[in-house]
Amino acid sequence: MESAIDTHLKCPRSLSRRVAADYVPPFPMWVARADPSLKQVVMGHFGVQSKSGDGLANAASLDALRHIVATFQATDGPGHFDLVDYADTDGYDNRMAIAYWTDPAAFARWQDAAPVRDWWQSDARLSDGLGYFREILAPRVDQFETLYAFRDALPGVGAVMDRVSDEIEEHGYWGSMRDRMAASQTDWLAAKGELCVVAGDPQARGRVVIGGHDNLCLIRSGQDWEEAGAEERTLYLEEIEPTLRAGMDFLRDQGASIGCYSNRYVRHIDLDGRPVDQSFDLGHWRSLDLLERWAESHPTHLRIFVTFFRVATSLEKLRLYHEVLVVDAADQYYEYIHCHPNSGLMRDARIGADAN
């Protein structure tokens, strides 16, 4: 058994772990490992928004998503991407391509290439009846952690990492998420600053740029039941998923009161928009400690946690995982084009606030 923090990222702790040195986790879990040369990753969320029930807009949204995916095939495109969709509380359907780069310079070249740059900057994005958004986060390797209940075909950021750890120590207790993040050895990772509107007016549905703040937190927590047998599929769909959905709906609808800026419970899709038996929650939080507070004390998450621990040892093909990051203000970019004002991080951004 080894630490979740890789050897080259370990340093003398000024902040202690949340458990004693002799703690033994209740079941095995693993994390993704990267070559020491990896310093930073880029996670890009590229979205298309359309009014629910509008067939023409739905078809146009799918075409736009395909166009975004086609640009990924260019030089300097991402090493991995996922396609998902979700419905928001304002009556809009949203499709997203979520992409990962291990080279920020390659991402910058891809984003600045004329075919990508000109499409996103075109006036057509404001007039074709759809909404579009780009959310870019680029954490350093000491600012994110992963956790998997399996060791093969890692999803999300794990797909662009180099290998998988041995069984790790830091899981199965409150605070383990923080303990797996290398930066937490010496930093409380407290939020600094505010979300602010950098350009545009969210109420005007034009182009809006939101500025993030230091140590904004993002969690992706996923489930994959594609390979599950009948019994395990029933266990997931009838016991785990309803409890999970209730918690995610709470964060989507009422999360602002506890520090959750945006919560999307998404379903994987293919390029034709057909659902795939995988899902994940994508949540932006003001800080890691507010995410922890909800996880440790709120009834909606305690029900999820208790349900998981009750069935964890019987899982064979159901694949559960998560990735969590904090990120500097300078390494975030949020742009919304003709989106409704509650989209993404616009809802909680303050006009005239200082992000730093």
TrEMBL record:
The keyword Nucleotidyltransferase does not apply. InterPro entries: OXD. Keywords: Heme, Iron, Lyase, Metal-binding. GO terms for molecular function: lyase activity; metal ion binding. The keyword Heme applies. Its cofactor is heme b. It comes from the Bacteria. Pfam families: Dehydratase_hem. Belongs to the heme-containing dehydratase family. This is Aldoxime dehydratase. The lineage of its organism: Bacteria, Pseudomonadati, Pseudomonadota, Alphaproteobacteria, Sphingomonadales.
